[in-house]
Design goal:
The chain is α/β, with parallel strands linked by helices and 328 residues long. The chain has eleven helices and 13 strands. The relative contact order is 0.13.
Length: 328
């Protein structure tokens, strides 16, 4: 079916892989709020999912259970629920330490799963928005501009970063060989309401959860980051479908650089936790010291905004966590 026939005026048909993740779930809500038909897939069963070999009990299923590392599974999602104008490929094993502890799943999901998506993109012709990571910049000491990866040979510091750079190369090769149309986004430390705690989540989430539950946490000295509030990230991501520029790569991050020590102090302030819970340690090995990001392209093309300062964003996140986890 030609792309022009795949959606009504103003409406697009969109698939979000990894739709139960922090960014994926927020993105789905944003895209549906704009009137798009959005289907998602992830690893777990859900009430609104399609039944592939039995009757589907909901009139319009908007979810499919799927492991993107299994070609047959993602192929039938696209065959049954498509065609799609855009695929936001969020599905991934996330994070440095998660990648160390579950490296088999990391390489299978991130490398093989993305290759599966590319093969289906070649066959079906949808436009792909692929989720990379700030980790691809390794320990680059200067401003992290998108073109750094073109001009310098960067040493990635962990397996997670390696898989994300592999993905970017897979996508470039497919464009050169088959003419696929893709955009890559590199996310920088996204946090906020909707990010449920696990020990592998963002440092913002981990510190805040520990503080609210009176658990100790470790602060590694000498590291600095920007932080991006989740609603700002998903709004910017949703804008890609309205101004899609094939071949572009975008940094999506915060404006103000803060040390991890400063982040911890803000957590103490908004949570009221005791400073005795904080343990300060030396710099963490194989972890980027300073991430300063150039977001001018995403501001120019995608109207990226940072609506909340770190303290306000962390206060809002703390209030959300208190409600979600039943904390007084």
């Amino acid at each position: 079916m030609p792309k022009s026939m795949r959606a009504g005026a103003g409406e697009m048909r969109i698939l979000v892989t990894g739709g139960m993740g922090t960014v994926g779930a927020g993105l789905i809500a944003e895209l549906r709020g704009r009137g798009h038909h959005v289907v998602s897939c992830d690893l777990h069963h859900q009430p609104d999912e399609v039944g592939f070999s039995l009757r589907t009990d909901v009139e319009v299923p908007l979810y499919a259970r799927c492991d993107v590392g299994e070609f047959r599974q993602i192929e039938r999602v696209i065959e049954r629920c498509g065609p799609f104008d855009y695929v936001y490929h969020c599905a991934a094993e996330f994070g440095r330490w998660n990648g160390e502890d579950f490296y088999e799943s990391l390489w299978r999901t991130n490398a093989v799963g993305t290759k599966n998506m590319i093969r289906l993109q070649i066959a079906d012709g949808f436009r792909l928005i692929h989720f990379s990571s700030s980790e691809v910049y390794g320990d680059w000491p200067d401003l992290m501009v998108e073109t750094v990866m073109e001009e310098y040979e960067i040493k990635q510091l962990n397996d997670y970063a390696m898989t994300k750079w592999v993905n970017e190369m897979q996508i470039r090769n497919a464009t050169a060989q088959y003419g696929t149309e893709s955009v890559v986004v590199r996310l920088f430390n996204t946090y906020g309401p909707g990010e449920y705690y696990s020990p592998y989540r963002s440092v913002n989430c981990r510190f805040l959860y520990c503080a609210l539950n009176e658990l100790p946490w470790s602060v590694f000295r000498g590291h600095s980051r920007t932080s991006t509030y989740l609603v700002d990230t998903v709004r910017t991501l949703a804008n890609i479908a309205n101004n899609f520029k094939p071949g572009e790569t975008y940094n999506i991050g915060g404006v103000d650089v803060h040390s991890i020590e400063e982040l911890s102090d803000i957590v103490l302030k908004v949570s009221g936790a005791s400073p005795s819970l904080v343990e300060h340690r030396d710099s963490e090995i194989l972890t980027t010291l300073v991430k300063r990001v150039d977001i001018s392209k995403s501001v120019r093309d995608l109207d990226h905004k940072n609506s909340y300062g770190l303290e306000e964003g962390m206060r809002l996140t703390a209030n959300w966590m208190r409600r979600v986890y039943g904390l007084v």
